[in-house]
Amino acid sequence: MSAPGASAAEQWPLWEVFVRAKRGLSHVHVGSLHAPDAALAVRNARDLYTRRNEGVSIWVAPADAITTSDPDAKGAFFESPAGKNYRHASYYTASEGVPHL
């Protein structure tokens, strides 16, 4: 049990909120909130982040379930190894006459 006088934010888990503004677009991280469970997190996210009918879909995920890369290791993590630029689509050019590219 939590300490007496502890706020709900200290007792409830932190949820990360992602909203899709329109069909066909990706979900975008819009913020975080505290809630006791996933269902209430979705309801609170709707009230907090989509007040003017901006969204068509909301995802919530427990913050402790999200793993991120280290921003300081950006170079080693995202850059192509020397001499292996062919691994990226930007290395190739689109051929003339190939539709829908």
From TrEMBL:
The keyword Lyase does not apply. Its EC number is 1.14.13.149. Keywords: Oxidoreductase. GO terms for molecular function: phenylacetyl-CoA 1,2-epoxidase activity. It comes from the Bacteria. This is 1,2-phenylacetyl-CoA epoxidase subunit B.
